[in-house]
Backbone:
């Protein structure tokens, strides 16, 4: 069982001068769900190497059992420091793909042609695809074989407009995820802000927020 995890390489929070990146919990929790299930996990990012960590996800109040485990796991830290360049990978080599969130993907993975092509290849092979929190941004430019938006008509969730408002970044982000998914024809739904909420549509799994990352990973595993 081989699972690919694709993280952002983008570290600038718009023009605020602040840093962003991937959200630690959304990487760590799924990573350990997969590893504990015996999966072989490959980590990738558009630029390769160490992906940027959103500093907001590394504060004391953002820690979870999975993030604490990661901080004492030198093997996992080493794997994260040496992510593979996304463009060098083939969907043929993996059984499933998982995209952790953080605000970074709104800027790079949402516009990344290699990411879109990878998702389209996974879909063509009917292999599970999962994205959590802001990571459903990866579906912005992903198409069906007929050229329609990949999420059109599909049941999905993702970081809500009200959650974005809650973190004060509505005017900073390049687009609001909820609005983009809806505009692309997705059957978007959501749970309560900051509560676990996962939606499955065939082999597509989406989670609303950091609290949904572990449940989304378990759902992905159940599809394998």
Residues:
């Amino acid at each position: 069982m081989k699972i690919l995890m694709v993280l952002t390489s983008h570290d600038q929070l718009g023009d605020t001068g602040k840093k962003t990146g991937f959200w630690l919990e959304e990487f760590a929790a799924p990573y350990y769900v997969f590893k504990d299930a015996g999966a072989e996990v490959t980590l990738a990012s558009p630029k390769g190497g160490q992906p940027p960590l959103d500093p907001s996800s590394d504060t004391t109040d953002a820690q979870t059992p999975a993030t604490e485990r990661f901080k004492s796991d030198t093997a996992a830290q080493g794997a994260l420091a040496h992510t593979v360049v996304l463009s060098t990978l083939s969907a043929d080599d993996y059984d499933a793909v998982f995209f952790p969130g953080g605000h970074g993907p709104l800027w790079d993975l949402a516009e990344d042609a290699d990411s879109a092509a990878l998702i389209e290849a996974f879909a063509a092979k009917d292999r599970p695809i999962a994205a959590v929190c802001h990571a459903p941004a990866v579906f912005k430019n992903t198409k069906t074989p007929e050229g329609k938006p990949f999420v059109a008509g599909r049941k999905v969730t993702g970081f809500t407009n009200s959650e974005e408002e809650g973190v004060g970044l509505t005017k900073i982000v390049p687009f609001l995820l909820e609005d983009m998914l809806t505009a692309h024809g997705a059957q978007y739904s959501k749970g309560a802000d900051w509560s676990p909420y996962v939606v499955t549509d065939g082999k597509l799994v989406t989670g609303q927020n950091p609290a949904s990352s572990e449940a989304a990973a378990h759902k992905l595993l159940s599809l394998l």
